[in-house]
């Protein structure tokens, strides 16, 4: 339990300090965000330093790795002990970083060309698919079954389609988080809430390995997965300090891709992929609004929303940006609680 607190605290402090220094560095190099022409009400954000997700990634790595150093041993007092890092959990982190690199390339091209378009849509999608495919192969190599688990104890065997579904989930959630990243602090704050909920699940699984060992790989029954979740949650909270309205720095595609890949990877590793619907509800809602808008205009020549993603719709209704952000956080929190309730109900019905 102490290690979980330490990992989150270290990540938080690292991101607080490194982002502060990063803002100064990016400003000195004129590394700033370009705004879509149609989003005229965000013109004041033009030039805000971007690629802040770099510090979220570095903070997550920092907190996760340093939490494996013990400086105090019960019964023996001060004693520096290096604990082994769970390589399977580290593999999840590495795959998420690879997805973050896709976003970093996109961000770099935007800054270099001084425009809002980096990678072409097709190029980005191919790179995302490669990262998603690598994740699916990795999960398969860990010996997971072809069951798609709704909440741990309840699963449906979908055969070989399980590995395709994993690719689609990783790519889909990554793009959903990327689409959501349009308001100051919306993704960072929502991610803190969602990862905090998932942290509760991971720690519960760690304390009840007898039941969950039926469908969770042994590597993820350890405390290490909780250390990783605490690290990313602390990193997002530290970044929120500088990203809250008015943002001093923007997350960028590098951050949204990293966070977006971690959500499904962690929940799949915990045998709770069905709970993605609840812990990522806000992101899926934003993505769905774009799909609905594009489909409606293509086939009906009519728009459902004034603008998509849906947070821009409310901006055009003259809602204050902070109002939208806080209300979306509340919606996200409600669905996180529902997800936790379903997870616990599964334990009550099947585990206890």
Your description of this structure?
There is one protein chain. By secondary structure, this protein is mainly alpha-helical. The chain has one domain. It is built from 13 helices and four strands. It has helices spanning 2-28, 53-66, 87-113, 121-141, 161-180, 186-207, 209-212, 224-243, 252-269, 276-279, 281-300, 310-316, 321-351; strands spanning 69-73, 77-82, 147-151, 154-157. The strands form two sheets. A two-stranded antiparallel sheet has the order 1-2. Strand 1 and strand 2 (77-82) form a beta hairpin. It is globular. The model has no long low-confidence stretch (mean pLDDT 89).
Summed up, the helix count is 13
Sheet with most strands: 2 strands, antiparallel
What is the terminal separation in angstroms? 23 Å
Strand order of the largest sheet: 1-2
Number of strands: 4
Mean pLDDT: 89
Share of helical residues: 55-70%
Percentage of residues in strands: 5-15%
Reading the helices and strands in chain order gives HHEEHHEEHHHHHHHHH
Total domain count: 1
Structural class: mainly alpha
Contiguous uncertain segments of 5+ residues = none
What sort of overall outline do the alpha carbons produce when their principal axes are compared? Answer: globular
């Amino acid at each position: 339990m102490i290690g979980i607190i330490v990992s989150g605290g270290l990540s938080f402090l690292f991101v607080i300090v490194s982002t502060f220094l990063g803002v100064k560095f990016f400003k000195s190099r004129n590394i700033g965000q370009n705004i879509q022409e149609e989003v005229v009400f965000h013109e004041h954000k033009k030039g805000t330093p971007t690629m802040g997700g770099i510090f979220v990634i570095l903070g997550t790595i920092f907190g996760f790795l340093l939490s494996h150093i013990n400086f105090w041993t019960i019964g023996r007092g001060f004693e520096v002990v290096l604990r082994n890092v769970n390589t399977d959990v580290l593999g999840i982190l590495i795959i998420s970083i690879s997805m973050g690199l896709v976003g970093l390339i996109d961000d770099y091209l935007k800054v270099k060309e001084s425009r809002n378009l980096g990678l072409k849509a097709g190029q980005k999608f191919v790179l995302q698919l490669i990262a998603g495919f690598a994740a699916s192969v990795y999960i398969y190599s860990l010996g997971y079954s072809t069951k798609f688990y709704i909440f741990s104890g309840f699963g449906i065997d979908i055969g070989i389609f399980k590995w395709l579904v994993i690719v689609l989930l990783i790519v889909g959630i990554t793009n959903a988080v990327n689409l959501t990243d349009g308001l100051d602090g919306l993704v960072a704050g929502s991610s803190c809430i969602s990862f905090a909920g998932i942290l509760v699940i991971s720690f519960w699984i760690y304390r009840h390995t007898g039941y969950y060992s039926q469908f969770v790989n042994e590597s993820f029954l350890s405390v290490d997965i909780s250390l990783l979740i605490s690290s990313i949650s602390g990193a997002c909270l530290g970044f929120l300090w500088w990203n809250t309205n008015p943002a001093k720095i923007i997350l960028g595609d590098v951050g949204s891709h990293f966070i977006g890949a971690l959500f499904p990877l962690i929940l799949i590793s915990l045998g709770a992929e069905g709970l993605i619907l609840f812990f990522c509800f806000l992101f899926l809602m934003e993505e769905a609004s774009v799909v609905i808008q594009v489909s409606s205009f293509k086939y009906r020549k009519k728009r459902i929303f004034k603008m998509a993603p849906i947070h821009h719709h409310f901006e055009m209704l003259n809602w204050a940006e902070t109002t939208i952000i806080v209300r979306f956080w509340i919606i996200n929190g409600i669905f996180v609680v529902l997800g936790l309730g379903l997870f616990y109900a599964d334990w009550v019905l099947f585990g206890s």
